[in-house]
Amino acid sequence: MSRQKANAEGKSPSRISAAARSLAVPLLAVVTALIIGALLIIVTDETVLAAFGRGIGSGLVQAWRIISKAYGAFFFGAFGDLYHITETLRIATPYIFAGLAVALGFQGGLFNIGAEGQYFIGGLTSVYVGYSLTGLPWFVHLPLALLAGAVGGALWAGIVGVLKAKTGAHEVINTIMMNYVAYRLAEFMLDVGGPMARPGYRPVSPEVQPSAYLPQFFPSDSTIRFNAGFFIALAFAVLVWWLLYKTTLGYEIRTVGQNPHAARYAGINVPRTIIITMALSGALAGLAAPMDILGVIHFMPNAFSSGYGFDAIALALLGNSHPLGVVLASLLFGALRSGASNMQGIAQIPIDITSILQGLIIVFIAAPAIVRAIYRIRGLEQGEELVLTRGWGQM
Amino acid sequence: MPPVLELKGITKRFPGVLANDHIDLTLHEGTVLALLGESGAGKSTLMNVLYGLYTPDEGEIAIRGERVDIAGPNDAIRLGIGMVHQHFMLVPVLTVTENVMLGMESIKHGILLDREAAAKRIRDLSARYGLDVNPDDLVGDLPVGIQQRVEIIKLLYRNADILILDEPTAVLTPQEVEGFFAVVRTLVAQGKSVIFISHKLKEVLALADTIAVLRRGKLVGAADPATATERDLASLMVGREVILTVSKEPAHPQEVILAVKELRVRGDRGEIAVDGISFEACAGEIVGVAGVQGNGQTELIEALTGLRPVMTGTVTLAGQDITNHTPRTITEVGSAHIPEDRQKDGLVLGYPISDNLVLNTYYLPPVAKGLVMQEEVIAERAERLVKEYDVRTPGIFTPAGNLSGGNQQKVIVARELSRDVKLVIASQPTRGLDVGSIEYIHSQLVRKRDEGAAVIVVSAELDEVLSLADRILVMFDGEIMGVVLADEATKEEIGLLMAGVHPGTQEAA
Amino acid sequence: MRKNLWMLVSLLLVVSVMFTGCGDAGDTGGEETVASVGMVTDMGGIDDKSFNATAWKGVELAIEELNVSGSYLESQQQTDYATNITQYIKQDTDLIVTVGFLLADDTAAMAAENPDVNFAIVDFGSLGDNVRGLTFSTDQAGFMAGYVAAAATKTGKVATFGGINIPTVAIFMVGFEAGVDYYNAQNGASVEVLGWNTAENNGVFVGNFESTDDGRRVAEEFMAEGADVVMPVAGPVGLGSAQAVQEAGNAWIIGVDTDWTVSASQYKDVVLTSVLKNMDVAVFDTIKQVIDPNFAGFGGENYVGTLENDGVGIAPVASGAVADAVLKDLETIKASIIAGEIDTGWDTYLAGLE
């Protein structure tokens, strides 16, 4: 961080305004997305259309009523009370892990589209350790179950890393393929009668032992599902940041990511670094799954697909592949999801609005020119602009 | 007749910088105007003003006596101004015709691209100006020199009369440079006018009709190529006396540092690029490797530094066999490498200077303690080296990509030569650099020699090899054609060896 | 100017939101309703044209006819189920309907913690005193469809496939195969079933409930093998099969869950019949129970949809597809199944799972 700051200092006399401007775009992107979301809510609401039929004035009043109700519920659902704040944080937890996974890959020049598959595998390994081991104290069982998720994801991604390092096979193709293998493997394991299925008629795993639960923070109120997972995720964000920017391994990962030729010249073992990067990325993706399994639902269903692995790509892009950025982006997504959930309950706005808002925010952040044009913000000088990714097409 | 182009009092300011300070220039029809200056002197800014990419803060531009406003490249092209950038703007997977048509496609029957008509025009232009370009070739298959001609054809196709060529020879081999000169002379003979941007004094003297020298945004002088010498131009450019020949004491070669025996190396396409080479380099001498580019020098250096596998033969560094060892081992045994392509191999452009300065020592104490890198040590080292090696930068945390070519090279030189090494391998160490930087880097290489290192210098510039090296190996077709002592060799002798001819026998090898 | 305008709009928006606060809960349908019903979908969403949609139809009918208020909450992730159920509990909803076996754990846990709240879960057995399980003997209807298919085939081959091999899917196929076997036995025919075998508990499954491409591919394979009747038990996947069948022009499709001549009417010319799983009837029935003034809790009682109570059934058979005698047979078969005289294969299947 200090380097980036110093860098801006070296180039521009107004570094504060530069920092403000680089923050302004994401913020305004969110505001713009909410405005467009509001327009969508208005034009799809029958009562508003009917009110406009009676006259512009009553139409506007009704539109205002609907929007304030919807967004009131939205903001309340995101930050309104203890329950909703903790929901926002809880939802953000697996996002942080998955986002860190993709971000780490980007830093190493690898486009890990396979976070979804690694998430599935991490879920399988973690839940297996979670339900099959009994009689362990929690401080042994829980770390073991988490470790199992990390190892599962790391191995799954590591295969792709090895293929890339040894044969040059592109990781995008291979991670996509490995996603399918992971889905089918999960199906095989969890389908009725499968090796990891619960006895009975449902394609789900057995219940995880309570000794592997992530500890709840409000055990007195069972509706609050906030658990230690969030703090583990934050700790990992710090760890990833430290690894990337403070250690020799991080230096190797970033050098290979930015310029593999120079990395080779510098004596870095590029294939080894690719394998390590991929495995670490997979470990992080694999850790996303236990956040829900050990922290919230305590079993793994075969229809576990939730799109975390794909949302993770957006999170890494939004977060500029920086751990802090990923955490902020994850909190944003958590707030959107939690808010939209409440908005659905209170104002009957379809939950799909989250996907629309997420999509709009990503578009506006990925194409900052749109936001700048709308709000007439001066562009950043060359070299100041956010580099969203250098992962694609580098190697 | 008014001049074809006239710039009056052009001034362009950037925050904190006066990039162009009241510059007046005149270009007459059918002549070559050379714009000479160190990197950062304001040449590119001035040309971008002319090409409409920047709006000048003051001053005016007149074409054939008429005042014009140029708001963008489209205006420039309409006014007959065309520019060939240093980095070509070509699409490799398209043919020459398609590249030339891009942006002004000729259409037939309303929707179909009329490739035939365009190809015919390209053939005509090619014949008329002696460009020798086949419109049906894929651009990606063409050598750099021909790609440059495609860029020129693009301009001619758009009826440009004033051609701006930005450092056109930086990417060319000596042979290609000759061909390029011929092209420019034909263009001028047929009435086109050319602005030639360069910092290579010889080329400027050979090609230009008039020379304008820029320094720190100001026009500091004009020179007549008929009377001016390289030394005059250099001191005009740099603003002080410049030593063009390398000043060095006679070499005192000591023990053998590097021994290469019967080395065979394959090139990228599987061909034998280095074919059974043997030589030695001793402590305290500079061995120059001369040769036309593409005769195995690149592959030789890559094999010596561990970047390319050795087929057969051995490489011994300070008594230790390093054949097919990793770049890291070879570095640790005591070798420094200034790579041929500094942006591709030598630097991570997105990294700050400080991080680039530890590119191959990042894991060693004191830069790293165990797994943790020591930022204070890195910063301290950077501050010291930036000062010591005269890297001109706003700060040690400036990304390397923001530096000029000369300063980028100084970062590499600082990194490599500040280490305690037995062998220095410098590949094209001054390619594309301005006079001041060249002078500095040469002196550093000599210093390293005098400290007792063996130094190997590969260069496509014969003058550089001649003035820097103590002993010269001439490579041709993967083999060493001959070894000469720099003091005794003549340019002609080496030139013949470079062409594969043994002096005396006068027979082609 | 423009910049200021946008700023103003956003500012107003934010401020208004701050002041309106959280708003009031669950007020759809006016104040004078007798009860409130909340439905929580699984990840398929409300417009899955399958069981979420059908269950919601039951709620809609109740809103119209029984003067109740109703709403639904869609789930995007496994962890949303509890969130959504919690929302309804906080809104004091009188009946919470959860759809699908995936919600079973959360429904059970919430029901145990909130014994005063009434729950109903579609496609799952009871999970406690205050939970009504809504299950369906679709094997009975599948049996009839199998009989029709066997009667309608000209090639002597009929086919079925599923989304994922779970009992709620397999039950259609089990009945279907038994129906075909019954036809063979009764009529001395030898119609073959592709894609399912109860004895082996094995069949063709595409592995999802989304991909219409998979549905098209599997149907085309079946037709290439000579089948001319296809019953896809895979939600929207079956629409791809229907299209393939329609393009082939010489085969029939059998709809599932709802009457496809209505819900997928673009394919009605190739719909032989549909196996109806009337989840709307079940949901409506449950709501009716809850609003009864004498209602004193479910007491752990389940609803099982059968041919007898019209919880399952088959849609009218395409005219001219089979002989009138076959339609008469169907009446007899229905009566026999209700009377328990015909084995639909379900017990064999369950035995095979043990």
Report on this model:
- The complex is a heterotrimer of chains A (395), B (509) and C (354).
- Chain A is 73% helix and 0% strand.
- Chain A has two domains: 22-80 and 334-386, no CATH class; 92-318, no CATH class.
- Chain A contains 16 helices and no strands.
- In chain A, helix 2 (15-43) runs antiparallel to helix 15.
- Chain A is mainly α and 395 residues long.
- By secondary structure, chain B is an alpha/beta fold.
- Chain B folds into two domains: 5-238, P-loop containing nucleotide triphosphate hydrolases (Rossmann fold, 3-Layer(aba) Sandwich), CATH 3.40.50; 256-349 and 416-498, P-loop containing nucleotide triphosphate hydrolases (Rossmann fold, 3-Layer(aba) Sandwich), CATH 3.40.50.300.
- A six-stranded mixed beta sheet of chain B has the order 6-9-10-3-11-12, sandwiched between helices. Chain B has a six-stranded mixed beta sheet with strand order 18-21-22-15-23-24, sandwiched between helices. Chain B has a four-stranded antiparallel beta sheet with strand order 2-1-4-5, with helices on one face.
- In chain B, helix 14 runs parallel beside helix 15 (435-450).
- Chain C has two domains: 32-136 and 281-305, Response regulator (Rossmann fold), CATH 3.40.50.2300; 138-277 and 323-353, Rossmann fold (3-Layer(aba) Sandwich).
- In chain C, the strands form three sheets. Chain C has a six-stranded parallel beta sheet, sandwiched between helices.
- By secondary structure, chain C is of the alpha/beta class.
- Chain C is 44% helix and 18% strand.
- Chain C is built from twelve helices and 14 strands.
- Chains in contact: A-B, A-C.
- At the A-C interface, helix 2, helix 4, helix 5, helix 8 and helix 12 of A face helix 1, helix 3 and helix 4 of C.
